[in-house]
Recover the amino acids of this structure.
């Protein structure tokens, strides 16, 4: 069948219009494509500003607005599920609305106080503590008024988030809840409330705990040697913490960094205390992948004697082996972490520079 010139011209015009539409629309489709997908095909929102879970209608109606804001803000800041925090607050004191002893003043029969029901000893020894004090506990100043007040929701919720994080959340939230109140029926109840508060009906990992949300870290390394260091370090994710561990099955905080540098053919000191003075100090904001970030945390530490160290893998993120109960080795944020002391660059140490020369020219 022959096509008339008119019909042929129409078909050619239509094809051209479709091609033009594809050229225009394709970039828009690419922009709107989610960067990562879950196994079920749903998108993984890796925006650090995004909340992991939307609030369900049940959560909105049951949680006071002030408390909901504190649960979400502190869950995001510390890196634990906000709905787990909210569920603890509900189970303990109905978000501070309970009039039982110990909620607004004093303590209950077990010695617990405040909206999140901290034992005074676990809080830090007193109900109200100057924020500048050094305490052995979870006393926190969530509203910046200079006082860590166990009865203040802003302070108590931040302290609860830190306690859950310290004991395994967000990866092992059941263990963290068991430490909070040592009864499995309590853990089950809190998880049930948390699922009810989430629009998805689930307790999920925050974005920063998902490997799918890591940047292409190794590819973005500033040099081949840093890429080797990071490749080894990132391959240790999921392994357990072990004090004194240098692998291959478990590591402590400085051990995984020591092993990562060793895998790249470089020797640096083994412990946090000796790694701190070894590297060249780097101003905050100028750190880069391969640098070390130190914290005044842990026993025997002080303002110039750090007890914890992480490996910077991108701006704001580090790989760390934190503690036995803190979950496996993982990539976390250092931006909101308390007691950050500073950054160093081991690759600028004179001894390391000599090692690099020999690696580049073995005949030296």
């Amino acid at each position: 069948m022959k096509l008339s010139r008119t019909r042929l011209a129409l078909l050619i015009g239509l094809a051209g219009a479709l091609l033009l539409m594809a050229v225009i629309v394709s970039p828009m489709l690419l922009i709107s494509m989610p960067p990562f997908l879950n196994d079920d095909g749903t998108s993984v929102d890796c925006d650090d500003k995004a909340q992991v879970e939307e609030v369900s209608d049940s959560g909105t109606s049951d949680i006071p607005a002030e408390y909901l804001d504190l649960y979400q803000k502190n869950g995001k800041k510390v890196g634990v599920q906000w709905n787990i925090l909210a569920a603890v607050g509900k189970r303990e004191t109905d978000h501070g609305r309970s009039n039982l002893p110990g909620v607004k003043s004093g303590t209950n029969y077990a010695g617990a106080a405040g909206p999140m029901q901290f034992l005074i000893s676990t809080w830090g020894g007193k109900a109200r503590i100057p924020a500048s004090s050094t305490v052995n506990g979870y006393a926190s100043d969530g509203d910046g008024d200079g006082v860590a007040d166990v009865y203040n929701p802003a302070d108590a919720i931040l302290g609860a988030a830190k306690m859950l994080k310290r004991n395994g959340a967000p990866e092992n939230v059941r263990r963290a809840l068991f430490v909070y109140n040592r009864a499995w029926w309590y853990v089950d109840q809190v998880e049930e409330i948390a699922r009810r508060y989430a629009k998805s009906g689930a307790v999920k990992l925050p974005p920063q705990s998902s490997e799918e949300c890591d940047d292409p870290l190794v590819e973005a390394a500033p040099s081949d040697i840093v890429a080797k260091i990071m490749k080894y370090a990132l391959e240790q994710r999921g392994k357990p913490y072990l004090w004194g561990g240098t692998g291959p099955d478990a590591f402590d905080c400085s051990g995984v960094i020591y092993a990562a540098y060793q895998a790249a053919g470089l020797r640096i000191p083994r412990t946090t205390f000796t790694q701190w003075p070894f590297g060249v100090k780097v101003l905050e904001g100028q750190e880069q992948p391969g640098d070390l970030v130190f914290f005044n945390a842990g026993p025997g530490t002080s303002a110039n004697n750090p007890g914890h160290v992480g490996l910077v893998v991108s701006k704001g993120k580090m790989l760390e082996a934190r503690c036995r109960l803190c979950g496996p080795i993982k990539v976390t944020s250092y931006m909101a972490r308390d007691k950050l002391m500073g950054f160093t660059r081991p690759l600028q140490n004179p001894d390391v520079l000599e090692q690099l020369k020999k690696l580049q020219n073995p005949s030296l």
Observations:
- Residues 1-8, 14-45 have pLDDT under 50 and may be disordered.
- The longest helix spans residues 5-32.
